[in-house]
Amino acid sequence: xxxxxxxxxxxxxxxxxxxxxxxxxxxxxxxxxxxxxxxxxxxxxxxxxxxxxxxxxxxxxxxxxxxxxxxxxxxxxxxxxxxxxxxxxxxxxxxxxxxxxxxxxxxxxxxxxxxxxxxxxxxxxxxxxxxxxxxxxxxxxxxxxxxxxxxxxxxxxxxxxxxxxxxxxxxxxxxxxxxxxxxxxxxxxxxxxxxxxxxxxxxxxxxxxxxxxxxxxxxxxxxxxxxxxxxxxxxxxxxxxxxxxxxxxxxxxxxxxxxxxxxxxxxxxxxxxxxxxxxxxxxxxxxxxxxxxxxxxxxxxxxxxxxxxxxxxxxxxxxxxxxxxxxxxxxxxxxxxxxxxxxxxxxxxxxxxxxxxxxxxxxxxxxxxxxxxxxxxxxxxxxxxxxxxxxxxxxxxxxxxxxxxxxxxxxxxxxxxxxxxxxxxxxxxxxxxxxxxxxxxxxxxxxxxxxxxxxxxxxxxxxxxxxxxxxxxxxxxxxxxx
Length: 482
Ligand code: BES
Ligand code: ZN
Ligand code: ZN
Prior knowledge:
This protein is of the alpha/beta class.
């Protein structure tokens, strides 16, 4: 990695220094700082109150110290974003080596160190070009030093996994196509510590029975891929599965999308990227749970061999599907994915994640993913994970009444009711038709949260949503089994 976080308490005053303060820590330290910088307390507190994201630069000869406020929040996302935003905006001025001084964070540093580290590393994430080598010297307090160093090491691993997810989503589909996605998974499996098996031909996917994925791929000149990511610790407490929608580009197919924002549809593998990142994080943290990821990857293209509205296709489960709208392709990939997962092993939980519907964006905007589950325990574990990770979810119902619209006269099920009412729910009902009733399953529709206008670029870019949520889910499942 080009951003090195070093824990070496460098005391050089020549290097720029970034000092972090929570409100409480600022109040306790302000007298001393005022004295040190020969500023009256009244002036100093007027200029800087350590509000979340607030900053001030203090200078003396060649010394430059920036104070950055963290407010009084414990929210992972708020702290991560405040640090990331500051680092992102000031990194050019900070140069090739700088110090981040955490000495003044005397209150519960171990509780906020994770988002701080994540914010620092994400602040150096680049959408374009190769990130320059930067050495960040962390100056940490002596109190709980061992514990904090371990937390820093873990937070680095999770941030690296998250940035991998972001890179997968941000990279255009002509660069990471379905084969490229499988290449990425293979290339990173050793570093993160999981096993990867990739199937890369139409014949291969046909042998596995992934007929619905193949139907989505029918109009493409890019071969599909199907990747299985497996992390198995020595003594797993239990096992879970993640399935991610890996549509590397979604034109809509024959039911083609309008062109205005079609370029955003490179993000349509955001669910698959979150699965890859979450397994990378879980494996590098060596959590005591076995996790398997399933990633069907294809683009959704238009040509003479594309699937058409009105066609009937086969699926992995054996159920036939009437295609009403070829733009409802993600659910076809997930139908095969969840069916394949449920037949491979008896997983304690199966969670699928996908940039699935515009309807979920209409419902929850850009703030939360939509959660669906056939099991209260699974839903509760996801909700808890959401509280911890600060990646918001909101549960929507799966009442059977919503399945009426996807009943077909000529096939077992149809992929779209023909009208957009409750579109996120009808999509979830469709996937549920491919999940065995006894399987504890949850579905996350992340169309509004995987890719957004977040201030870290001129256009939308990847958020890494899902990595932290799914990693935390694995931790909650472990806890729940102890
Ligand atoms: N990939 C889209 C969903 C999407 C929307 C992702 C916005 C990211 C941001 C999905 O495949 C799709 O096209 N859904 C359609 C389904 C409809 C035609 C049945 C939708 O939601 O409009
Ligand atoms: Zn679509
Ligand atoms: Zn799609």
